[in-house]
Design brief:
single chain; about 90 residues; alpha+beta; 2 helices; 4 strands
Length: about 90
Amino acid sequence: MVSVRRVVLDILKPHQPNALEFSRAIAEIGVDYRVRLTVLEVDEDTETIQVEVQGSAIDFEMIESTITSIGGSLHSIDEVEVQSEAD
């Protein structure tokens, strides 16, 4: 079995929800998710952010769905860490 342990995402989002609310929404998806959000650029209507998610088994599809549901747009997956495990 292979588990995704870490992803770093480049996201464009509106100013609302703010960075704290956005991070909480992603963290609530998993039981052990750790989320680090960095605002890279701000313009009149949007923010470009980098989001790093760490956990024992990250559900990327749920993260992507949550990002979209709260108004964000995933631009790229910039880093990934996966780990194989014995069954």
